[in-house]
Amino acid sequence: MTRIDRNAERREVRLDGVAERRYEVRSAAYAVASAARRLAAELDTEAERPDWQQSAWHGALRTREPWQPAGRYTTAALRVLDEAHRLVAAAVAADRAAGCDWALIGAALGVSADTASRRYRTAAPGAPAENRSAR
Q: From which domain of life does this come (predicted)?
């Protein structure tokens, strides 16, 4: 009877871990959506102005002021990309907590199981792996 109890406890602990990872994936997805909405709102606001008032136009015609960020569009898009990397790391952690093996995760990422394992095994949930350039 104690063996059944121990197995039930392990299953409950595993399910708690999966639920926690699922919550982290959901939070990361909301962060990606929020960053993308901010970028879209900024672009919408800018699109309502005449061409000569849009930063993409006047930025090319005069030098940048010290308080204006360089590469505003690129910087904003990189914020979205950073959040997306966090989302993928959280999703990998959730899949692992649910019992998914590295081969399936690697196939979903388009890399080998070994590459997926090296990239995401040490990544904390919600944080991107350190070596992103090795794709």
A: Bacteria
Residues 6+ apart with CB under 8 A from 60: none
Check residue 130 and report its DSSP letter.
S
What is the mean pLDDT of the segment spanning 102-125? 88
d(CA 68, CA 79): 17
pTM assigned to the model: 0.64
The pLDDT tens digits for 61-89 are: 445 555 555 677 788 888 899 999 999 99
Nearest-Å Rg of the Cα atoms of the chain is 21
What the block records as the tokens of 95 is: 């899949």
Query: Residue 59: exposed, middle, or buried by beta-carbon count in 10 A (0-12, 13-18, 19+)?
Result: middle
Cα–Cα distance for residue pair 101/104, rounded to 1 Å? 6
Phi, psi angles (nearest 5°) of residue 54: -80, 135
